[in-house]
Amino acid sequence: MTDSPHTKELRRRLRDRMRIETYLTRLEWHLEGVMPGAERKATAETLRRELMADPRNLAMALADLGAPRVLAARYADEGQQRPQWSIGVIAAGIALLAYWAVFLSYTGGMLAAVDSAAPATAHSTFLFIQVEAFSSADGFGIGWTSGWAWLVVPAAIAAIAFLAGSRVWRALPRG
Questions:
Q1: Residue 130: beta bridge partners?
Q2: Is the dihedral of CA 91, 94, 96, 102 positive or negative?
Q3: Which of 31, 67, 109, 110 counts the most CB atoms within 10 A of its CB?
Q4: Terminal CA-to-CA distance of the chain, rounded, Å?
């Protein structure tokens, strides 16, 4: 079964549209550090219209623009850089996932140790959080208590990752 010329053109246009959107998304990530949001969106929209209207092959048009990071650097106002808040949010999320993965691995290891020596109970501390694992003939389980530490520790980890990931020091005035 062969495709009609219209179907081939539609596929090419969809593929080109996806390449344009991918390029512009990467560009916006890099532009976040060098220009305000409204200006960034207007720049991306202008480039989108120009790329869609460009009669040349899309690969050639994108090659003329260069890599998104390089193009964003050309848009920068005299080297002034801004915080990258979206990257900070992603960094905080990754840090929280890593914290919970390590915490649950730790408690799972405690549970495996007490389950192999059942009936047994183990108490430990993980980053200021008291952890308990128990195993008996009736069942097994894990638990943790520490007042506010179970909330403060992950919040502090997320806050530090957010501040570092977003490069918040860029928002401070330079003297």
A1: 125, 145
A2: negative
A3: 31
A4: 69
